[in-house]
Amino acid sequence: LLCPCLLYGAYVFLPFDAPLLPTVSARLVYALRCSAFATFPVVLGMIISGISRLCSSALEPFGELQREVEIHRTFVSQSIQLFILYFLNMAVLATYLPQELLKLIPLLTGLFAISRLIFWLSYAISRSFRAFGFSMTFLPLLAMLVWNLYGMFVLEPENLLS
């Protein structure tokens, strides 16, 4: 329930508009540029994971990982997987959205990045709290997938593969 409220509030109250993007290629470039910001939590996680691995007191490099190192490694691997799904859905979404709704692309990117950081923080605190951050990442991704499938099979079935 929080994700739609956050997106609606940001859509209405943030003072920016998407640029005029009449072609599919311009929309894809816009989605690609916005998606670059979604890599911030992944890169930050890789840096912190490397630092925690260097600072761990493990004498054997291939031995059992400490909890702190395991948290960062798990966060990075899950974030990469979710980013791939996010990016593919964002690219398709950019082709189906009407011009007045293209403002959602940077908003969804920001929600993805913030949600991954919330997941990381809650996962570090306790594993039982990670569901909130994961659902803030996964449910918008699921909504994008449903919209993309709706757009492909219902709105424009004649252009499915073109």
UniProtKB/TrEMBL annotation:
Presence of the UniProt keyword Thylakoid in the record: no
Membrane-spanning residues: 30-54, 75-98, 104-125, 132-153
Cellular component, GO, one term: trans-Golgi network membrane
Keyword annotations of the record: Membrane, Transmembrane, Transmembrane helix
Signal sequence extent: none
Any one of the GO BP annotations: regulated exocytosis
Domain of life of the organism encoding this protein: Eukaryota
PANTHER family (UniProt xref): TRANSMEMBRANE PROTEIN 79
Protein name (Swiss-Prot/TrEMBL): TMM79 protein
Species for this entry: Tyrannus savana (Fork-tailed flycatcher)
